[in-house]
Amino acid sequence: MRCTIVPPHMLERVLEGSADPELRALALRTLRLDAATRTERRLAGPVTQGNGRRDEPWRTVKDAMHLEELPGKTVRSEGQDPTGDPVADRAYDWLGATFRFFEDVYDRDSINNAGMEMVSTVHFGREYDNAFWDGAQMVYGDGDGRLFLSFTGPLDVTAHELTHGVTQYTADLAYYGQPGALNESMSDVFGSLVKQHHLGQTADEADWLIGAGLFGPAVRGEALRSLKEPGTAYDDPELGRDPQPGHMDDYVRTHHDNGGVHINSGIPNRAFHLLAAELGGHAWERAGLIWFDALTGGALYPDTDFRGFAAETVRRAAARFGEGSAEHGAVAYAWTAVGVAP
User: Scanning 17, 47, 158, 279, which has the fewest C-beta atoms within 10 Å of its C-beta?
Assistant: First the structure.
């Protein structure tokens, strides 16, 4: 499974609607590279899966040196000094921050809960406008400098993509339609929680944005997505307007983007934000724990839809906090507010 942080509809908008031939060429190059790497992992060797708990990160950062080949040359391994390349060193730091979140908060040892090596490749391609999880590792483009800056910049980009790995090793949600939108939403939710944990923010202090700081200075937008207010993250002449709905009444039925996985994820995203806002405090402590219990508890199937996931979160809230508890009631309220009957 290959999952990109920038959805295809943003790049397709540039390709089809921009008056700037240079931007159209950049979008076409990224879309073609996305398509090529989607069908072939092209890894030179396997990532070490781990065979037991380590309870410490095992990080490796590689440099593709602007080629379109993976995994690239190793430039920093676990425990080594910084390289001096801020892109590579941020990738290393963000792997550590994501590891520490899942280890310290949920007692999960790396992506597969068995000490898996965490690998990132930086400087992939030339002016490549995306980052992705390819089923085994993280890969970052440098951005084109106009629409997108370096993809190692925002911590939540790394955390979002690594959470696709956590989902892969747990519920293994299919990457199409509602299960795919849930898959994307899991990554947005935990991507945001990793950032909040790193910054020590409460639910009301957090920005609830994914990819803040990723856009170039001329782009009209805050981020790629907003969990708090889906559909408001950007409105730009080149990239278009954020199409995410926040309620089932506005669910988008499409064959593009694997059935709208990056679009309809706004609905479960908003449900999580409503839950976190209702409970207050640090969102990873109660709201996040309910979502994590549901994701890792073994009751989800690859084809689980929004309603099935909502029902599981209600069950998990009752199991952990008690029937009729504030947490139990808040989960049911959040899903009802977005038009999903749990």
Answer: 17
